[in-house]
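Ticket opened by: R.M.
Priority: normal
Category: complex prediction / small molecule

The reporter submitted a protein together with pyridoxal-5'-phosphate and asked that the result be attached to this ticket for the collaborator who will pick it up next week. Submitted input follows.
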Amino acid sequence: MKEVLPAPTSAIVQNETKRIRELFEQNVVPSYARFDLVLERGDGSYVWDIDGKRYLDLAGGIAVCSLGHAHPEMIKALTEQSQKLIHVSNLYYNELQGRLAKRIIDLIAPGRAFFCNSGAEANEGLFKLARKFGHDDGRYEIITTFESFHGRTLAGIAATGQEKVKKGFEPAVPGFKQVPFNDLDAMRGAITSKTSAILIEPVQGESGIMIASPEYLIGLRRLCDERNLLLLFDEVQAGHFRTGKFQSWQRILEQAIEVNRPYLPDAVSMAKSLGGGFPMGAFWVREKFANVLSAGTHATTFGGTPLACAVALKVFEVIERENLAANARDTGAFLLRELQSIQQRFPKVVKVVRGLGLMIGIEFQPQFKAVEIVKELHKRSILTVPAGNSVIRLLPALNLSRPEAEEGLRVIEKLVVDLAHKE
Ligand code: PLP
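Result attached by the on-call engineer:
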């Protein structure tokens, strides 16, 4: 049984927090608005701050720590592989990268995988794929959606449908435009003779968990077939079994009767949970377009190192052996049901609760600011992630247990009750 220690009170600890904050203020680029927490260690779905206060981690490193913290099998894979071979360049073959690519292909469809280091970089690969695909007929444009998020590189922010990430970095990389999400007519209307691809997140994460309808996904596939466009999915946040299937489009479409099976996009970006906390990104491209990025057209020094691949293979192994996709589906459904019941009892505090598997957005009424809710939950020993003005997200480890989910629910419910009484 893990002990819950009292909140930081001692002057020594407060000084320690202050000292570390100052170390950051003096030395780290201030591009993040950080919360006032110094985290020191983790175990499963719990993390501890420097005072020894324990938090239930429902943020999962923003959908990264798929097996929780300090998973013994990940530690073993990291240790053993690092004693053998940490890095070799992509001038040579290494078996682990080939095995990891096969694992991804077996779970999607015949094609190829490319490995990189982050979600933004995985998307950059998709952008280059789309440019190369349309190049010979003068097509280069990629249509994305409002409220999307595709990373912080220059092309990533051009693709992203949120003004706040673009501001101050003009002129934007040309060739991107946005239309409303889940609106097939808007997408159809935006296609021009210059369009080469459509890119969406089947579940938008940063905008507060907005889920594509099956009709929208099916319609996009038809549209791309009719107009000879690539259909690209950004599964960086929603992928890797988080919604109960390997990729979220596979979950969204599992009940759809109209789908011409197999339903496939043309390429998919991944990152976050793929390495369970070890930095890693990837994209899969369908067999038909596997040679678009031919030798010499795309590369990255650290892509698919033996160490990253050994860890990612271990993450796959544990998820499959322990059937964590089913846990994400069931525990996610339980959390969603309970949170929706809280919403129904307190509609003046909680506006709506949305989710798919372990990807849940709790939208508060607009007077409640997401950042303030997240801070209040810190006081109550829970980590969550803000999204936009009034949404908090739960993106926990895929092995979150039922008692841990219940613990989180109790704290969130108490907060909602307290806010309702204050109103
Ligand atoms: N795409 C989506 C859907 C994301 O949620 C994110 C990060 O939040 C990214 C891309 C960018 O990934 P990274 O931060 O690893 O570059």
